Fold this protein.
Amino acid sequence: MAAIQVLPKQIAELIAAGEVVERPASVVKELLENAIDAGASAITAEIRNGGVSYIRVTDNGSGIAKEDVPKAFLSHATSKVRKADDLDEIMTLGFRGEALASIAAVSHVELLTRQAGENTGTSYAISGGTQERCDDAGCPLGTTIVVRDLFYNTPARMKFLKKDVSEANAVADVVERLALSHPEVSIRFIREGKQTLITPGDNQLLSVIYSVFGRVFAEGLLPVSYTLDGVEVHGFVSRPTAARPSRSMQYFFLNNRTIRSRALAASMENAYKNAIMIGKFPACVLHIGVPARLVDVNVHPAKTEVRFSDERRVGACVYYAVRSAIDADVTRPKADLAKAAQKTRQTALQLQMVETDTPPAAPQKKSDFWANMPARQFKNEDVRPRTTPAAPQGPVGRPAQPSVVPIAAPPRDYSARTEPDEPDVIGAFRKKQQSPPQKQPAPQPPAPAVTVTAQQQPRPLRLIGEAFKTYILCEYDGKLYVIDKHAAHERILFNKLRETKKDDPRQVLLTPVQITLSKEEYNCILTQLDTFEACGFLIEDFGNNCVVARECPMLLHTDDVQDVVLEIAQNLLQHKTDIQAEKINRIYETAACKAAIKAGNKNSTAELKALAEQVLYHNEIRYCPHGRPVLIEMSRYDLEKQFGRIQ
C-alpha cells in the first residue's frame, strides 16, 4: 500500500469544488441562496454564454464586513452555524460554508460589498483559490459578485459542459425555482443582455407563477391552504381539466427550499383519484412548512433531498390539502357548441379524404344555358333532349317560340356572358355569301368504352354495423372482419403524414396557440425546431418557458395542438439519442393519434363504410403506429365451427 499523504491545498479545493460546482447553474444557485439568506428584497442575476464566461449576481442585502470578506472564501467558513445543535434548527438555504470557496477554486471571482453604516465598501478579487486584492471602494448597499471563466483551470471538466443554450436553460430553471420559493423577493434575470424574467416581490405566489409560467397556466390553478398536526401546506394545484401528460410541472418547496420527494408527489396524485384521466398528471406549486427539528436537510450537498422524521404525517397533510381544494372547486367546464360542431365536421372531412384521397369538391353552380350558348352554337350542336320533339324553325334559323314552356328559363347572368345575346344575323349572312363554303369535318368514331376488369375493381363490402361505438363489423370476401376504428384511422393518418413533404400546404392557425412548458420541455423543443418544421409545425419561442404554435398539419384539429406539442416534447425527452428519422416518426405518431376519431364517437354509416373500405382494400394497413392490431378476421369455417355446424 502506498504511503498516505496530505493533499496540497489546491488539489483539495478542486475536489471540494467538484462536489458543489457541477455547472454554471450550481454557481448561480449558491449565489442566489446567499443573497436571500442576507435578507435581500431585490436580486438581479445576469449570465453570458450560458454562464461559462460571465455570471453576475447583485442584491440589496445586508452585505459583508470588510474584515470578514477574506474569511468568506475559506472552506467551511459560515455565519449560519455556531454549534452542533444549530444543525437541528437550520432554516437558512445555505449553511455548509463551501460555496464561495468552491467557486473561487475554479474561476476568477470579483466581489463588491458594503454594509449599512459603512462609508466605503470593499472590492475583493480571487482567482483559482488565491487572493489577488482587497481594497476599499465606493459601492451601494448590498453585495455584487462576478464570476468569470468558469473551469478555466480544469479543462477536463469544461469538456463535459453542454451547449450554451442548454446551460443557460439550466440556469433559468434555478432562477425560476428560487423565485417560486420566495415570492417576497423580486428577482430579475438577464440572459445574453436580454431580460427574460422579473417577479414583483409582492409576496403573492400567484404573481410569481404568472410571471414564470404565463397567464394560461395560472388560470388553470386552484388555491390550496391546509394545516394538520403542525404541518402547513399552501400554494396552488391544477384543476383536473388542466392536467398534463407528465410530472414535469410539479414543484415542491419545504420551508422555502426546493426539494424533490416521490412520497409527496404520490400523496398529491392520490388526491386526484377518480378526478383525472388515466395517463394524465396534475401540476402544482406547493409550499410545505414543517418544524426544522422534524426534517433533515443535510443529506446531499445540493440540499434537494430531505428526510422526514414522520413522512406519513407530511404526506397526509398534502393529500388532504389537495383533496380539499379539488372538492371546493365548484366551477364546471363550459361546452363550446360551435367548437364541438366544428370538430365533428373536421372528423367527417378527414374520413372523406380517406375515401377519395382528395378534398371533397364543392357543388358546382348550374350554368345559365341561354346566357352562355348563342343561337348559332345552339343550331349547330344537338344539345336538345331527345325526348323533346323538334321545335319549328323560325326565320333565319331562329327557333320559334314554343306555345308551352315546360320549364322556365333561368334569369340571364350578364356578368358571365362572353358573346352578345343575339348574333349579328345580317352580317353573318353577308359573310357567308362572300366566303366559299367550308367542308364540314368528318364525324369521328366514338371512343372505346373503358371497362374495369375484375382485378381492378375490388369485391363489394357489406357493412353490418358498429359495436360499442368502437368496432366496425363488416363482411368482405367471405370473411367477417372486426375493425378498431380509432386504430385504423390513426394508421391511415399516420401514413398520410409520412407522405407529406416540407413544402406541402399547412394549416395556419387563426389564433396562435400559446403552450406553457417545463424548463426541460422548453429546452428540448427549442433545440428541435427544425424537426417540428419538417413535420408541418411552425413553432416559435415566446419566452418564459412558453412557445407559440402558428402552423400545424392539415389533418390536425386546432384544439389538439397544445396536447400534441406537450406529448411530443415528452417523447423527445425520453428518446434523446434517437436518430432524426425516429424523432419525426414519433411526432407523426402523436399527431395521428390525436387527430384520429376516438372510441365512443358517433359516426355515420357512410363514414364507417369508407373507413372499412380503406382498411380492407389496402393490405399495408394492419397495425396502428403503436403496434396494436387494426382488425381481426374470422372465416365462415371458424364461425360455423364455434357453433357446432362443422365437426
User: Anything to note?
Assistant: Residues 364 and 539 are 38 Å apart (CA to CA).
